[in-house]
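Deliverable D2.4 — example input (structure tokens):
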């Protein structure tokens, strides 16, 4: 039995300003922890509108350059 194709609707688009990532530390010789701060932005669309306030960010780990 085939599943029906999903139906998707655009709710909003987020345009977020992000500063360059800062090296925070590492867990091993091959692993580096980074933080990229969010400095602001906008959210707009048919179902949601608003402003992205600064203060959050994205944490990520680089392992062997990946």
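Example output (designed residues):
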């Amino acid at each position: 039995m085939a599943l029906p194709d999903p139906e998707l609707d655009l709710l909003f688009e987020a345009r977020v300003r992000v500063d360059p990532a800062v090296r925070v530390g590492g867990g091993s010789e091959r692993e580096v922890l980074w933080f990229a701060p969010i400095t602001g932005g906008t959210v707009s669309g048919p179902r949601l509108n608003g402003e992205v306030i600064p203060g959050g960010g994205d944490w990520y780990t680089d392992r062997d350059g990946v």
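The CA atoms of residues 22 and 35 lie 5 Å apart.
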